[in-house]
Amino acid sequence: MLAGFRNLSGTFSLLFSSSAPSVLPSVLSLTQIHCFLTSRQSSVHRHPPTRCLSRSAPSTGPMELKEALQVLEQLAPLSLAESWDNVGLLVEPSKPRAIKTILLTNDLTDAVMEEAEAVSCDLIVSYHPPLFRPIKRLVQKDWKQRLAIRAVEAGIAVFSPHTSWDSVKGGVNDWLVAGLGSGQVSVLSQALGGASHSHKLEFMVRNTEELSAVEEELKACDGGATLQFSGSRPDSSSLHGSITCSDSALTPSVQMLLRHNTPSQSLSIQKLEKPPLLGHGQGRLSVLDHPVNVATAVQKMKTHLGLNHLRLALGAGKTLESSVSSVAVCAGSGASVLSGVKADLYVTGEMSHHEVLDVAAKGTSVILSDHSNSERGFLTVFRERLAVRLPAEVTVLVSKADRDPLEVV
């Protein structure tokens, strides 16, 4: 059985009108459609829908883990995370327990785990995922596996948001760029929505009888189709129809239409683009309302990050008195996101030696704070956002043991 053929509920929207498509078509010929059907794999990748970012009212009484996770995802939907990332609930205790204490940390280390146990923590929210690569065994010699074992034994759940916090509007990168003051902020790498419909099939039918037949077959596939049409085209007695469907429903949709003579002769397939999620995505560029010089930018970022020292690479031909009117930021390791962006100043946690040389040679100055120092300050901001959405009985703490492994000596 082809994937998606048994249950297509909620995947179709059948629309009939004389209007032109709103996206650029990727049209396939009838021969190409047949080739496509024979070569298409049965397994497909599903894109989770983006959740609403609306604020939820605090509940009363004991809070379950699933309720706490719902609040966390309302604040930063996991669908915003990068595809390579490992986000969400990473450790789930076997015995459910009420969530009374939540500990926020940038990294889950031995010191942070000891702190979590000392405060009787029920849920650790670790910005960086302590479990990232696939695990074949749980043994004591690996420090990350050891931490996972300790969490399970202590009945502590572990959740990681990572790049969903980077991407979400008002998240880590918006907090980081605000360190240099207000400005016109834009996203460097735009996040895209997880649209439920990925393809549009356009075709013609001779009359309403054939139209009804198409609709009945969709209903037989449990498609839940809705039929709308505006009459015949001006230059033809035929009716123009279109079906929008999910990726998993594409193959059965095409097969159904090919069983009808007129639709099979006029069928075209278009790939629909995912809609942009405005304000969400990786990295930020700010055109400052009040430009500053490089020296002032350094001091502002020290204050914002709570650091005594930063590393600075001056761009070619620049001095500490050179003006900074635009700044591009990416929390953590930002070289790939910042690559090619035109700005007077880059701010990120870390870049390689040669990446810094390349950027500086183009006249852009670079501030490096070390990786987690560009992220950790957001925990305090997030604590306030989270606390007001939880019952009063739930305590939200920011780890005191969490720190960047590197320090200036």
Polypeptide structure, described:
It is found in: Cytoplasm; Nucleus. Keywords: Acetylation, Cytoplasm, Metal-binding, Nucleus, Phosphoprotein. Its main location: cytoplasm. GO terms for molecular function: metal ion binding. A divalent metal cation binds at residues 128, 166, 371, 375. The chain is an alpha/beta fold and 409 residues long. Among the domains are: 65-167 and 379-398, Udp-n-acetylmuramoylalanyl-d-glutamate--2,6- Diaminopimelate Ligase, Chain: A, domain 1 (3-Layer(aba) Sandwich), CATH 3.40.1390.30; 172-191 and 278-375, 3-Layer(aba) Sandwich (Udp-n-acetylmuramoylalanyl-d-glutamate--2,6- Diaminopimelate Ligase, Chain: A, domain 1). It has 13 helices and 15 strands. The strands form 3 sheets. It has a 6-stranded mixed beta sheet. The termini are far apart. The model is unreliable at 1-27, 40-56 and 224-232 (pLDDT under 50).
